[in-house]
Amino acid sequence: MAQLSTFRQALSQSRRPLILAGAGLSAASGIPTFRGAGGLWRSHDAMSLATPQAFRADPARVWAFYHYRREVCLKAKPNGAHDVVARLSGRERAKEVFPSAVDVPTFVTQNVDGLSIRALEEGEKAPIEMHGSLFRTRCTSCGTEKPNFNSPVSAGLVGTEDLSKEYRAVPLEDLPRCQERSCGGLLRPAVVWFGESIPELSRISQHVQRADLVLVLGTSSTVYPAAGFASEVRSRGGKAAVFNLEGTLGSSEESDGDSDWFFRGPVEEMLPWALGIKSSSL
């Protein structure tokens, strides 16, 4: 397969590789996506709950939605694609795949499910979570942000994740509260909601500007600014490889618009195959 040969040559020559992941990375773990048609939660358009305005108007309902998502993600396990990327975040494995690289690949994930973090072992570099994480909270009073993998995130939310039961509003005082210096402020999920800026965008842009090869995993690259990263790398002479079940407009079996290589199929299968990594070696 000609494209596999040229792709692996690019891997061996890359000095500053970048990995960008979307929802397809977590598909095999059973993580649902609420974007687009059919993205409903308790008959609500889930995207309408992912806004600062929705949280101000009804924090209990928004927290119930995010509690449900947290519980789904906590029951899920990282899949083979997460494991491959995690191993590439360690120096030893990264050098086998990217022998010319000056450091381990920079990994940027658009996912908020926390699975890429959970796949890591000691010494492996954490990803940049572009849109935040379901498993971080931010105080609306003092601004303190902390990891939080508690299940449930607060006792008041127990049972609201059961979609077979009628929705039960949680009293404001029973929602997650800040424990920092007896602050007691209302916590919110530390995710980037619609209408909010991306705190990590400047840092990510610096990595994109330096990258000479980008691997795009499980995203059709339709949502900006991430959708423009591959074309930006290529505009400066870099290369881009896309791993996804579906291509974007103008894609074919071996090309996907703004990419040099297109590997169509489940990311958890195509990625280790293209990289030449056997699952038993993970």
UniProtKB/TrEMBL annotation:
<dbReference type="Pfam" id="PF02146">
    <property type="entry name" value="SIR2"/>
</dbReference>
<dbReference type="GO" id="GO:0005634">
    <property type="term" value="C:nucleus"/>
</dbReference>
<keyword id="KW-0520">NAD</keyword>
<dbReference type="GO" id="GO:0070403">
    <property type="term" value="F:NAD+ binding"/>
</dbReference>
<feature type="domain" description="Deacetylase sirtuin-type">
    <location>
        <begin position="1"/>
        <end position="282"/>
    </location>
</feature>
<protein>
    <submittedName>
        <fullName>DHS-like NAD/FAD-binding domain-containing protein</fullName>
    </submittedName>
</protein>
<dbReference type="InterPro" id="IPR029035">
    <property type="entry name" value="DHS-like_NAD/FAD-binding_dom"/>
</dbReference>
<dbReference type="InterPro" id="IPR003000">
    <property type="entry name" value="Sirtuin"/>
</dbReference>
<dbReference type="InterPro" id="IPR050134">
    <property type="entry name" value="NAD-dep_sirtuin_deacylases"/>
</dbReference>
<keyword id="KW-0479">Metal-binding</keyword>
<feature type="active site" description="Proton acceptor">
    <location>
        <position position="131"/>
    </location>
</feature>
<dbReference type="GO" id="GO:0046872">
    <property type="term" value="F:metal ion binding"/>
</dbReference>
<dbReference type="GO" id="GO:0017136">
    <property type="term" value="F:histone deacetylase activity, NAD-dependent"/>
</dbReference>
<feature type="binding site">
    <location>
        <position position="142"/>
    </location>
    <ligand>
        <name>Zn(2+)</name>
    </ligand>
</feature>
<dbReference type="GO" id="GO:0005739">
    <property type="term" value="C:mitochondrion"/>
</dbReference>
<keyword id="KW-0808">Transferase</keyword>
<dbReference type="InterPro" id="IPR026590">
    <property type="entry name" value="Ssirtuin_cat_dom"/>
</dbReference>
<feature type="binding site">
    <location>
        <position position="183"/>
    </location>
    <ligand>
        <name>Zn(2+)</name>
    </ligand>
</feature>
<dbReference type="InterPro" id="IPR026591">
    <property type="entry name" value="Sirtuin_cat_small_dom_sf"/>
</dbReference>
<feature type="binding site">
    <location>
        <position position="178"/>
    </location>
    <ligand>
        <name>Zn(2+)</name>
    </ligand>
</feature>
<feature type="binding site">
    <location>
        <position position="139"/>
    </location>
    <ligand>
        <name>Zn(2+)</name>
    </ligand>
</feature>
<comment type="similarity">
    <text>Belongs to the sirtuin family. Class I subfamily.</text>
</comment>
<keyword id="KW-0862">Zinc</keyword>
